Amino acid sequence: MNKSVAEKRAEELRLLINKYSRQYYEENESDISDFEFDELMNELKEIEAQFPELVTPDSPTHRVGGTAGGQFEKVEHVVPMESLQDLFSEAELIDFGTKLKRAYPEISFVTEPKIDGLSVALEYADGVFVRGATRGDGVVGENVTANLKTIKAVPLRLTQPIPYLVVRGEVFMPRNSFFKLIEQQEKEGEKVFKNPRNAASGSLRQKNPAITASRNLSIYVFNIQQIQGAEIRTHAESLELLKSLGFNVIPDFVVTEDIEGAMEVIREIGSKRESLPFDIDGAVVKVNQLSLRESIGRTSKFPKWAAAFKYPPEEKETLLKDIEINVGRTGILTPTAILEPVLLGGTTVSRASLHNEDYIKERDIRIGDSVIVRKAGDIIPEVVKVSKTGENSVDYVYPTVCPSCGSPAVREEDEAATRCVNPDCPAQLLRGLIHFCSRDAMDIEGLGEAVLATFTERGMLNGIADIYKLKAEEISVIPGMGKKSAENLLSAVERSKANPLSRLVNALGIRNIGQKASKLLAARFKTMDALMNATKEDILSIEGFGEIMVESVVQFFSLPHVRELIAELSSLNLNMTEPEEAGKDNRFAGMTFVLTGTLSKYKRDEASEIIESFGGKVSSSVSKKTSVVLAGEDAGSKLTKANELGVKVISEEEFEQMIS
């Protein structure tokens, strides 16, 4: 294919892909299958790879980028992203609208769902998406353009070349995506997001846009912040314009002439909130006429022409029929309440979290009791308390043996969790395999939970090393697989052998050692041999590693079957080294920072990430080994100790000079 033909075809593909994307996200339909859509996208990727000069800023292939950089750039919003006043009763809302109607008889209202997500601003120049930022404090946010491009519902090019446009929207995680994510996190022994809003926020602020892309986020746009090239008189008109430009606009908005009508809409939205595919935490009522908004004005905190009505959380009483124990990847025994099914917020709930043994004992929860159930964060069912002790209720005795393999289950001192001590426990085997193949570990595409379950049931996988002994003829005869699937899967397995040491360490599932700690271990010791033979003192020298983490690492690598596994993986040609990061800025190498007080420009974790991106380490306590203390407002005992020890203390301004 020559360049002129490629250029023409690339433009055709972009138009088709954008068309089908709009169909899918705005009209909930599609003229083509997902497979056909992927074929178009892959064809465009191939053309752009062959002719890089044909890549355009608005290409759909940009939805998955490489990296957002070591830190997020600060962005000052063109128009401040204000918050809204919250109202918690119908009387408050009626009073709010009545006063406005009395002052401005011609007024009308727009009522719409309040999506529970992360507010962002999207900026377009000549119809092309150029920048996106989080709300932040309303005046300054974070530049997350690369991550926003991965969200398919964000148009990279508008249907009209509007000279300049800034819109506000809410990034959210659909419920079905959230349930899949927390199920994966539970199986892999990771910290589970409490609700879709936290999941959306955590996913959008990833340093790697590919992770954001994998989380299936979406967005609804609900406001024009600034526009050039079009005149609009009402909020309803602005939403219709946004829809015509290709945006995924807030659904179910209704215009009413009075506040009583708006209240009816709020009740209707509330009645179906749990059947919606996304979370809402209320409804928003806004003055429709844009000219009146200027007359009505604002307070120092929020506009006077809008308000958010918040729905109360729903709790229900039901019978606790039984308690079931599940065994996780790390051997933790987790209790789940089996309930008499109850309708809670529009969905039927028959299972709920009981967290751990202490949770059950502290609330004196017994089988046969009537209990109060609610959805934590409006999404995950949990037992809150006992409402009535049953006449024949029975104390629950926490198991001392694993329900999966019958091995002893023990609870160590200072831990809330009870664990199975058998490393070969069948329940742990499958979850261990799932973790090993997961995206953050060895990232073996095609070896998901269902496939791994099938392979273990057939006796094809009895341990981690068996992954690298799979044969095409074994795989291809499995129903639904076939020759091509077998080839693709084995190719993914082969590619994983080249992963750096840090991924392999994380994949091994060492207790108390996650992705970040695995990277620190690999960066410190460089080779698997050095790590396996490291002493407690060697590992303890890594900033951030405490006694418990160190003990976990040393104990893990002292186990004979672990050393046998490592030797076998090495013989199967898995990489056992960590490469040096080319061109990495290590200006803080060898330096240990301590953060104290309230920082005005950064959150604690943001400042920590910046320090670590430059090769530095962050500690929670001040000692003679501390290099620098970054002190914000109201710094306390850590600042005092730093001054006593003569440790260098810097302000945020000095910190910004150090990282500029």
Topology:
Layout: H1 3-26, H2 34-50, E1 74-76, E2 85-87, H3 90-103, E3 109-115, E4 118-125, E5 128-134, E6 140-142, H4 145-148, E7 164-172, H5 175-187, H6 196-204, H7 209-214, E8 218-228, H8 235-245, E9 254-256, H9 259-271, E10 280-287, H10 290-296, E11 306-309, E12 315-327, E13 333-344, E14 347-353, H11 357-362, E15 366-367, E16 370-376, E17 380-388, E18 394-395, E19 409-410, E20 419-420, H12 426-437, H13 449-457, H14 472-476, H15 482-496, H16 501-507, H17 515-525, H18 528-532, H19 536-540, H20 547-558, H21 560-571, E21 592-596, H22 604-613, E22 617-619, E23 628-631, H23 637-645, E24 648-650, H24 652-659
Helix pairs in contact: 1-2, 12-13, 16-17
Task: Write a concise synopsis of the structure shown.
The chain is α+β, with helices and mostly antiparallel strands and 660 residues long. The protein contains 24 helices and 24 strands. The chain has six domains: 61 residues, Helix Hairpins (Orthogonal Bundle); 234 residues, D-amino Acid Aminotransferase, Chain A, domain 1 (2-Layer Sandwich), CATH 3.30.470; 96 residues, OB fold (Dihydrolipoamide Acetyltransferase, E2P) (Beta Barrel), CATH 2.40.50.140; 71 residues, Orthogonal Bundle (DNA polymerase, domain 1); 71 residues, DNA polymerase, domain 1 (Orthogonal Bundle), CATH 1.10.150.20; 68 residues, Rossmann fold, CATH 3.40.50.
Task: Looking at this protein, list some descriptive labels.
660 residues, alpha+beta, Helix Hairpins, D-amino Acid Aminotransferase, Chain A, domain 1, OB fold (Dihydrolipoamide Acetyltransferase, E2P), 6 domains, 37% helix, globular
